[in-house]
Amino acid sequence: MGAPKNIIAESIFASVTPTLGQGQERTGLNGGDGRILVQANFSWSPIIASSRDTEKDYTVLPLDVIIAPALPAGLINHEVDQSDELNDIVDAILSSASGTSELSWSGQIFLVIPNRAGYIGRAKCFQQRFIGCSDLGLVHDRTTFAQDIKCGPTDSIKAVLGNYLVAIARQRNSAGLCDESTLLKEIDARLNFEWRFDQQPKHKTLALVDGNLNQKVCLPVYANNDEGVPKLSTRGTDWSKSNVGHSQDLYDPVNNPNGVVRLTNAHNGFIHGDLAAFINSHNQFDKGDCSYGKGDMGTLRLRTAMANHLNEYFAPVSNFDAEQITFAAGVTSLSEISAMVLCDPGDAIMIGRPCHSGFEKDLCMRTGVNIEWVSFAGDYQFSLLEVADYDAAFEEAKARGSNIKGLIICNPHNPLGQCYPPDTLKALMEFCASKEIHLISDEIYALSTYEREDRPSEKFTSVRSIDPSGIIDSRQVHVLYGMSKDYGAGGMRLGCVISQNTNFTRAVQAVSRFSSPSKFSMELAAKFLEDRQFVRQFLQKSRRMLLQGRLYTEELLKQTDIPFHDQGNSGLAIWLDLRGFIPSLGANYDPWFAEQLIASRFEEAGVLVDRGAVFSAPTAGRFRLVFSVDSETLREGIKRINYVLQHF
To answer: Where is coiled-coil annotated (predicted)?
Structure first.
């Protein structure tokens, strides 16, 4: 798609009058009710961005300017053009303070997306992820930048810009340009006001006239909605900006053929019918099930049923016992609880990347725990060679003063869909023993593995099936498991952590009261696990259908020349490799921005797949596609993905 030209965005603040770069064109804007008005005057190739019904209410908004939080008034008097580096702008701001200890604040800074990024439809695609601004030199190397200012790749504009200004202020303080404490206070205060781009404006798709677009677009922009009431806490304010929405306009081949194809939810839709039939025939409860019972940590009946089940399928060296098992409302809760039990605020847990998208939030959001990321050559992290990468990352983090308390793995792996070989698991256990840290193995996809006839593939091996003698103290090893993946029972909200560490188990049980599971769910799950003949047939069918689903999806991807990671033999998803499409955007593109742009175009075409940044991928251009849906939905989703890539 051709690049739009001459897009200028200004805020409703009349005081903002930055000088435009040569060749740019000013457009008049107006407003006074909290709106940002954007007038676009540019041309692009006459290709409508979406293959969906253009009568739908959504916006294709060519916008190549991000409105960031307020900055000091010194910016107003500085002639800003696109060649300025952001630190030059900050220099001008600090210089304008003339060494005074107080700064007046107003106005906006405009961060121009690199290379005139084309359209980004649906303002909500901005959400709160910062997508990079190479034109101003803000994010040339996303990883290095994030490390330098202690920000992650999905931090909000507020966090990135605020931390960047803090870093600059500290660098400049020795020159005596301003008082650091005052400046930091002002930065913190002003960055509390943040524009939000997570609301979808209701406009018809903009029309192209002779290949040109020259219309004024009103884009609603929402600030923190706490005026007139006591403010939330700092963490409450941060959490209020989280993206927790899901599309409700879902695809149906008959009733809603123009709906959104969602290939993001990792649930096993192949077996939902069988599970629902079992529940409907076993939903008899007695009056005791209506009380709290003894269920904060899982009923004894359920814990015993799970222990017996895992003893059959996991082949542990020493049997699982009900006393080692603690249940809560999902593995998400138990990941967080495990982090709290093992780590003090400020401590860290190691994770190889890419990884399960929920790990960072689960382990960090409420705990004060940090993540130490481990990167490997490519995406592979399953051989003995990769253990050396863990060791190097540990020593580097230790040199920085990071106190690492544990390592978490996902086996079978999400999103790569592979299992760890026994030798690698042993080496990781030895590594954890040598560093005196805990090993947490998330084995929630353990029984969603399947043998392939077209190539050899690693079978699932639990860490509990490896003899720890002479390797590691068994009390350092903990297993996460649950009902959501292998059994398609995410709606039951049941997960468990299994440990031979009595103190760990007691601590987890003490905290699990805050996320105790439903007594009805526990009774149904116990009945399910106790029916051994049904469970065996159920899992056999699930594995057969997952294998068929993966092979069918791989064939569709091959037919459309969409590259993917072809080593998977477990789980519900396939890891797409779209890195080859990034160079077509030009050398000036930040690759992470390019990944976001691809994702936004998928969304415009009505198909949702998770991008690699969600899984902390080390390189941009990866996407996860969940294939455990009906074949019509899958075909339509891949058709839309292919359409976008063919017109990219």
So the answer is: none
Residues 501 and 552 in one domain: no
The DSSP secondary-structure symbol of 537 reads: H
pLDDT of 343 higher than 90: yes
The DSSP secondary-structure symbol of 350 reads: E
Helix axes of 300-313 and 532-559: crossing angle, nearest 10 degrees = 60
pLDDT at 455 (0 to 100): 85
CB 117 within 8 A of CB 586: no
Nearest partner of 112 among 94, 85, 78, judged by Cα:
85
The residues near 3 (Cβ < 8 Å, ≥ 6 apart) are 44, 115, 116, 117, 118
List for the chain the helix, strand, coil content (%; round to 5). Answer: 40, 15, 50
Task: Using the predicted structure, report yes or no on whether residue 400 has a pLDDT greater than 90.
Answer: yes
Please give the Cα distance from 153 to 330 (Å, whole number).
26
* Radius of gyration for the alpha carbons in the chain, expressed in angstroms and rounded: 26
What is the rounded CA–CA span in Å between residue 413 and residue 567? 11
pTM exceeding the 0.85 threshold for the entire prediction: no
Chain centre to alpha carbon of residue 623: 11
- The pLDDT of residue 513 is 87
Backbone angles phi, psi at 576, to 5 degrees: -80, 150
Residues in the chain: 648
Q: Does 64 fall in a domain?
A: yes
Its domain, for residue 65, covers 7-240
CA dist., res. 102 & res. 183, Å (int): 7
515 and 548 fall within a common domain:
no
3-class DSSP state for residue 23?
Answer: coil
Residue 629 sits in a domain of what CATH number? 3.90.1150.10
Residue that has been written with the tokens 């002002």 in this structure: 186
- Residue 632's nearest CA partner among 273, 259, 277 is 259
Could you tell me if 61 and 217 are in contact, meaning their C-beta atoms sit under 8 angstroms apart? yes
- The token pair at 513 is 């009261």
Per the prediction, the chain carries an average pLDDT of 71
* Structure tokens belonging to residue 544: 């057969």
